[in-house]
Amino acid sequence: MPARSSEAYVLRTYPYKEGDLIVSFFTRDQGKLRGAAKRARRLKSPFGSALERLSRVRLAYYQRENAELVRIDGAELVESQFALSASYEAGVALDYIAEVSEQLLPPAEPNEKFYRLLNAVLADLRASAGEGLPAAMWRAVTYFTFWAVRLSGFLPELKGGGTDQQLARAMAVTPVEALAELDWTRATGLELRRALQKEIESHIERRLATVALLEAL
Fold it and tell me: 10 Å Cβ neighbour count for 106?
């Protein structure tokens, strides 16, 4: 296949050979792909800081037919999450969002709605940087978890009519930035998050490493 250029979110990177990186990224037009970025770990990396977790980038890559990895030739940073780097809690939330996305998204299947979910949740977190970040973090995590499960096609039946069910109904019709009036704390939607996280783990091969970090906050 010819060289491509796609807008994408970086989900995960890990070392490969000497000085290279394997990058898992979620493109708007091609879905989730994995590629090799040559010399990305070297001091004078041609990629700079563009391959940080959940950075939105424009990737140039070459995709050979039937090859497991694409060849990443360049990455232009469009939007980073650096404004959130001073907050440990926000960092845990970003790790959770990246891990769930990496585990749930199937390879090479475009999902415009999931892409827009990442856009909305990350924009809300950046807009809330500062004093409003603790509440925004729990709002973003709960909203993202609900929609990640729903868009993946296995939203469980929510029995009863308690607070958690009311919250789920609100998130189904309300943009994330419009949920700010609630008292968003760790306790807000806790049982709903646990139920949805349990549902996620029943559909993937391993337990989520970031759930324990969220529970410890």
Answer: 9
Residues in the chain: 217
Number of other CB atoms surrounding residue 39 within 10 Å:
14
Residue 180 CB coordination number (10 Å):
13
**Half-sphere exposure of residue 61: CA atoms within 13 angstroms, side-chain side:** 29
Distance CA 112, CA 106 (A): 13
Contacts (Cβ under 8 Å, ≥6 apart) of 204: 103, 104
* Domains defined for the chain, CATH in brackets: 3-79 (2.40.50.140), 84-216 (no CATH)
pTM of structure = 0.93
Q: Which residue pairs, CB below 8 angstroms and at least 24 apart, start in 199-205?
A: 199/149, 199/154, 199/155, 199/156, 200/100, 200/103, 200/104, 200/145, 200/148, 200/149, 203/104, 203/152, 203/154, 204/103, 204/104
57-109: per-residue pLDDT in tens?
A: 999 999 888 778 999 999 999 999 999 988 999 999 999 999 999 999 999 99
In whole angstroms, give the CA distance from residue 87 to residue 133: 8
